[in-house]
Design a protein that fits this description.
With about 150 residues, the protein is α+β, with helices and mostly antiparallel strands. The protein contains 3 helices and 5 strands, in the order αβββαββα. The chain has a 5-stranded mixed beta barrel.
Length: about 150
């Protein structure tokens, strides 16, 4: 493979990496907008009971939870992400949690922390990784060009 072909390939990889980074930035922005929309809709709060908990990661102070809550004598179920203090995984089961719900449609809800936060963080991390990859590929192309 000639040096020109390697430069061309590096530029294509850089452009591809940059496009992938942009896609994940757009996904993170979309998740943020959806989360904000859900927060704007869910203006009422009620206390719900945690019915199941499982760890969100290897760190036991971050958990996903499922909770039941009652609005107008109807029981609903919601999910949420909870992170607070140490060992919340061990202490959350059968505990009370704040549930935010839409008064016009009580089945639209979220529990505990901000909704879709984990997805936003994941998309931003992926975007950064690919965003760093683009300049690395361009730097590689520049290095090949200088050695010609």
């Amino acid at each position: 493979m000639s040096k020109e072909e390697r430069i061309s390939r590096s530029k294509k990889c850089a452009i591809g990496s940059f496009i992938i980074a942009l896609v994940f930035v757009c996904l993170a922005i979309y998740c943020k907008m959806e989360a904000q929309n859900l927060q704007d809709r869910c203006t009422e709060t009620v206390t719900g009971e945690v019915i199941s908990v499982f760890p969100a990661s290897g760190f036991r102070f971050q958990s996903y939870l499922t909770a039941h809550y009652v609005v107008n004598d109807v029981t609903y179920e919601t999910e949420g992400h909870y992170s607070s203090g140490y060992s919340s995984f061990d202490t959350l089961s059968r505990k009370a949690v704040t549930v935010h719900y839409d008064p016009a449609s009580p089945d639209v809800s979220y529990a505990a922390d901000s909704p879709k936060r984990d997805l936003m963080i994941l998309f931003i991390i992926i975007a950064v990784v690919f965003g760093i990859g683009a300049p690395a590929f361009l730097g590689q192309a520049g290095h090949i060009r200088k050695s010609m």
